[in-house]
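We recall that each integer encodes one residue's backbone shape. We quote one record:
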Amino acid sequence: MRPRRADWQSAEAHSFPLQWETLLMDLASVATRAISRGRSSSGVAELLRENVLFATLFTVGALLRTVVFFTYQPALLLQLDTIAYLREALGGSPSGLRPSLYPTLLKPALAVNNLALVPFIQHILGLGIALILYVLLRRLGASPNTAALGAAPMLLDGYQLIIEQYVLTEALFDTLVVSSVALLLWRARPHPAAVAGAGALVALSGMTRFVGLALIAPVLLYAVIRHFGWLRIASLAFGFVLPLVVYSTLFSSAGGNVEVTNRNGFFLYGRVSSFASCEGVDVPPSQRGLCIDEPPQQGFEPTGFWTLDLPEEVTDSPDANGILLSFSGRMILAKPLSYAGAVGYDLWRFFAPRAPSSQEPNVARWRFPRTLDDADPQPRVRELEGSAPPRLEAAKFRIAAGPAAALRLYQDLVYSYGPLLGAALVAGLAGAWASGPRWGDEQRSACLLLSLLSVVLLLAPVVTTVYHFRYVLPTLPLLGAAGALGASRFAGKRGRRSMSRRRPPAF
């Protein structure tokens, strides 16, 4: 018999060994029950009946990933970021432009001269994320069908499928973020070690994509409103800070400064470039060369700093990043409405009722190429300049034309439509603010955490840099879970109200 939920939640006074002993006994009990049920065909049939929708979606997601994996071999290399990660993994020094955890984890695949290992592992991670989400939503009280729908964006989204085939960070980043959420939500009052682990996973996500560092804010808020206590909050902070200290120390050995990046000023300059006219703004003479009287694009369409011609006196300066940070800060303070308008417009674009291909030219890179005429990746491989292992340099990129055409058609039809993502966010936030026993309701606080994490992942990039469609993809697991849990919360309330109306009056 499965232990009651209360049995999983150890009291504050329990010792650390006793808590882990209880956890192991619980896991053994669950495993024993699953094995005993699986020994008979009736047990397997019962498991499938209980979870038929998720089993179906999971199978479809696995089959789709298998097709993608064998259609594009050994991996997709159509992004400059991919080449940068491979260069660093092959012995290059950290640039400060991108975090270094992902290139470090690429080294084993390159050591065995098998680049196909990377997308293979990333597809496994994608399926694992969906499984974690489903189990977590069921544990939080969602029905089997609702929980399955919450995991569906991760399993089926056409753009999620292709980004797992790239040598890019998204699959690892999502794994770290979703795992940290699972540690926080698995128990009503998690052990301090679990909370510290969640903080460490958030920090590691920031070493994968810098935007992950901003996720500590909603995580800390969740710990406070759930009354975790000082011990757990301190454990969370310690788990978050320790990996960052180690990372920044290692980065300083290569870059000279104790920091995690030395390019945030460049990114922010790209953000303010659409309104960087210096008219009426007090700018030091040394920064006048950064003024842009005519924005490079009209409206709220800023370019990245990599497309702008920066003055030589800035690019040659050892403090170029600091100069760009100072100038960008002046522009934001002098023109807060222009800055807010640019950020707000880009945030809206994530939810706009338009196909991704009409959002920006770069979306073409995230569409399944049907033939080598659509994309020729071999020049990208040659950019490694002889530093790659021989088998990697000699690898021939292959596209199976028939499956590729089918995948392109699938991607045009099955993706997370902007308004659908907006509806999921609204449902999650509504579930968080629905009436309940303050924040003691686990569903309510979980809705808040998932929704705020999604908002931060969408807001942080457009606050600090420019809009790209790619930035919406890491929110798919969180938005799906938030929407499902919010819908489950409202469905449960309606069900309870309906039951109360059917009760006979008391005399």
